[in-house]
Amino acid sequence: MSVTHASALILAAGGSRRMNRPKFSLAFKEKTTFLEHLSMIYHDSGCSPLVAVLSSQGLAEMSHLKLDLPSALRVVVNAHPERGRFSSVLAGLSYIDADKPVFIQNIDNPFTEPDILKQLALALPHFDYTCPVFEGKRGHPLLISGKVVRDILAEKPADVPLNLFLKKYTGCMVETLSSRVLANINSELDYRAWFGRKSY
């Protein structure tokens, strides 16, 4: 399967309490935020549709920023982000073709690379989902098949960790040479560890 046959869902509705600012607005490069970088990676890789899920507060804060986002990116709101990650998945999948595989991308891991997306896509036809692995540890992003997408939309599970929901499906762990698939930037210390500088 090609990456161009998949859609992409960027989850950015978390409260970011430990960062004291929305993670989507963190600087990936001097003039590029996490959301700008990730949305362009998926856009340039040919994913369509491309959806980002924000909280109501995040959407309000984004309106004050001058972000350079692909015109194809659709921003939707999770009205209840306190219900957890799966609530954002459900909010985003409602705007995505249920017959297409979907990359599920957490905003707190901004290091997604086109080559990793290609590896995940190539492995998917034989499995229900694929995800990258570095030295035995599972990372991000996750690629789920159209079957899993349809099941999620049909069952609408509430307050269930996504990894538990996926236990009934067959998955492929794709070995990578990049430790960056394990990144999980939840605090200023995490940011400094991965970027070697402050987030502001």
Search tags:
200 residues, 8-stranded mixed sheet, alpha/beta, single chain
Describe, in plain words, how this protein is organized in 3D:
By secondary structure, the chain is of the alpha/beta class. Helices cover 30% and strands 21% of the residues. Strands 1, 4, 5, 6, 7, 8, 9 and 10 form an eight-stranded mixed sheet that branches. It is globular, with a radius of gyration of 16 Å. The mean pLDDT is 91.
Summarize the structure.
By secondary structure, this protein is α/β, with parallel strands linked by helices.
Distance between the termini: 40 Å
Mean pLDDT: 91
**SSE ordering:** EEEHEHEHEHEEEHHEH
Shape: globular
Radius of gyration: 16 Å
Lay out the secondary structure.
Blueprint: E1 7-12, E2 27-29, E3 32-33, H1 34-44, E4 50-54, H2 56-62, E5 73-77, H3 85-93, E6 102-106, H4 114-123, E7 129-134, E8 137-138, E9 142-144, H5 146-155, H6 162-165, E10 171-175, H7 188-195
Parallel strand pairs: 1-4, 1-6, 4-5, 7-10
Antiparallel strand pairs: 2-3, 6-9, 7-8, 7-9
